[in-house]
């Protein structure tokens, strides 16, 4: 099989950053980058200017109970979804930002306690992807965490000092998959995790 597509023809050596303008620095950071890059035809581009939001790495994990065939998702308000037809309360996987010196796996365990109020039995890596590389550097690392979810539906969690108000929903897997493309699961980390779970559900149930 031809795997040439896995090797990009260019790398960082083929990009020249001419100037970086700091536009904002708060919870996130935004810069305007002025750069030029090597082109497929062999020459260099003219100067390109683009604004980039720097968020860093994040981790997301879908909760699954293989014994009872239940899926755990969290629901919370998201300001970026104020214009969404379903409203700003989004149904998501447990997620959090990676702090300096912290491993991706450590974030899963920390966020499970903070957002879902539980400790998983084990976690399995799914994949990593860039959320919106056209204007953001955020990279998501996605996991599946298994745990006993019976009796946890409706619990409210989150850190008070961070203004979090997070509800844990425990839903039968068949119900989730039947509504997978209804628009309720409207973010990439959740869709990717659920699609992976749909493909690997039988294996996880077999232990």
From TrEMBL:
Cofactor: Mg(2+)
Highest rank taxon of the organism: Bacteria
GO MF, one annotated term: metal ion binding
Enzyme Commission no: 3.6.1.13
Residue ranges annotated for the Nudix hydrolase domain, each copy included: 54-193
Binding site for Mg(2+): 95, 111, 115, 164
Keyword check for Zinc: no
Keyword Metal-binding: yes
One GO BP annotation of this record: nucleoside phosphate metabolic process
Catalysed transformations (reactions): ADP-D-ribose + H2O = D-ribose 5-phosphate + AMP + 2 H(+)
Keywords for the protein's UniProt record, in alphabetical order: Hydrolase, Magnesium, Metal-binding
One Pfam family recorded for the sequence: NUDIX
Motif placement: Nudix box: 96-118
Protein task: Acts on ADP-mannose and ADP-glucose as well as ADP-ribose. Prevents glycogen biosynthesis. The reaction catalyzed by this enzyme is a limiting step of the gluconeogenic process.
Family to which this protein belongs: Belongs to the Nudix hydrolase family. NudF subfamily.
Listed name of the protein: ADP-ribose pyrophosphatase
